[in-house]
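Hi R.,

Here are the chain sequences for the assembly we discussed:
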Amino acid sequence: MANLTVEHVARIEGHGNISVSVEEGVVRDIQMDVVEPARFFESMVVGRRFEDAPLITSRICGICSPNHALTSIKAVEAALGVEVSERTRLLRTLLVYGSYLQNHATHLYVFAAPDFVGLPNIFPLAQTHPDVVGRALKIKKLGNELCNLVGGRSVHPVTAVVGGFTSEPSSRDLSAMRARLRDIVGDALATVDLFASFKVPDFDTAGEMLALTSPTEYAIYDGDVTALDAGWTRPAADYHDTLRESIVGHSNAKHSTVGGRPFLVGAVARMNLNAQRLGARGRDALEASGLVLPTRNPFHTHVCQAVELVDAAERCAGYIDRLIGSDGSSEPVAVDVSAGTGAGATEAPRGTLYHSYSIGDDGLITKGDVITPTAQNLANLEADMRAFAPTVADRPREEFVLLIEELVRSYDPCLSCAVH
Amino acid sequence: MAPRVVVLSLASDFGCQVQITNTEDHLLTILGLIELSYWQLASSGHMPDEYDVAIVEGAVTTDEHAHLLRDVRGKAAVVIAIGACATIGGIPALAGSGSLADRYATVYGDGVIVPAVRRAPAPVDSVIHVDYHVPGCPIDQSEFLRVLSRVLLGLVDHTPDMTMCGSCKIAENVCFFDSGVGCLGLVTRAGCGAKCPSLGRPCTGCRGIAPDANVVSALEVFERAGGGADALRSALDVYNTASEVHV
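And here is the predicted structure of the full complex:
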């Protein structure tokens, strides 16, 4: 085998190439070249009003924009000392989960599934397996509609602003959504069965795993950061002290380490750290999948995401119960502007997302910082590629390339997020 | 023969492509009408040498983008620009002012060399002729489907030249200026049905400046009841930095 490059890896978000250098038949090095050009979001927000930060930084990523918008809002609120209502928190959690349903369904069925059935894309399955494509589109569509209902739009929510929501869904619409969420649990369970049935490579990452955790729930909208191996739990707002970012020559995205080690964020890390907080249906789904925790196999992302779909549907129905059963208001609360610095974190579909801002007395942003899940994962992904490639280097070239691509896709990378 | 379609992205967040995949009820119908020749987001495979229609998302920020677009223009009979980045420069153009070296320093730290291929962010039609535009951040699915249908039928499409205020009246929204809050619907191209104002949020101008906009009058309205000229300028900067409108 000779050196090879895979340009513009397909079925991932953003532009990245894989370079493999081979000497005398042995894989010497393998890199994920992130060629997506920087758009400089951290410099764009400087000098702008704090209200603009969520609007602008939401555009880092069109695929997980609800998370960027909400993480930005949380960071601004932390900087300005804004406390929001319980109703606002519930609606925001629903918005994040709408994004989960949409993103996980897309990653599982549109991006990953073609690998397991040997197709370039999902579209031929519409003829051969209409039930599977129908299920994929049904879950994805419900996720979009949940985002539409709460946020006004699935890509780049309109209604979520600093302090609350500019518009709220009616109880009638919420009630109709609850019925559909309950209905989709069966489709999510079928998704767990499907992905549990796919054979994945037997491979363990050597990296640490980080995710938000909470004593009360499967942490999505809020929580502290817990490290699986090291065992510590720290406030998410301290992420600057916890994570080390560095610049690497072959990537427009920075790499991250924790305690000197690469690490993994996303569904596998979340499941390892939070499985005991799954709802009843989610726990059943996890058990039915046969997955043994903790797992260190990044290829288990698929099954973990599928279990999260079940849990999302069940939990969102519960959140809607609470919204309908309580009065409260999500109307944006008044903001007193005074200088401050604050950070926010949420679990995006691909892993923990951090935003932080410094704001002056005049309400203008003086500094902004964003660390995305994929940027955190890149160093670990490369370490995994280096460890995994030699184990499959004896395969025919096409199969070798496909396996490496599958490893990349198992991380569900979002490279426009990673570079921003 | 079904037209061969490629979907490409330049500097963007992929949100408009996601909006295409979010047309769930119509996606399979669309795919039945075209031959999807290249779509990196959704399918493995290489960019083909021959195709009929190119759908382009994203702003031009590098020489490679410009080369790619010229190549595309030489091959495609029809080029469709989708989204604010591709049609007006959009959010990426917000990083177009000032020194690029300073922006590199802000993001990557001091001492990082700006690649020679970088350009000031600009819309697709700053490099090549564009046949159809689908504005918005992100695009509206029904508008995209309308434009694509017209492309497939060989019909001309025309995005409205008027501003959004009329749509807001039809939607019976209370005007933001009545409560002293500025709104870019005054100067922004109609066609979204005043989506954001209908959800309680002022227009942010993502569809670009309407050809019919009266910017001088808009400035007066902002000075009277919308936070002043600076508020108008600042709001316009978000999406319309690359547009040649001076207020």
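Chain A has one domain: 41-412. Chain A has a mean pLDDT of 95.

Let me know if anything looks off.

Best,
T.
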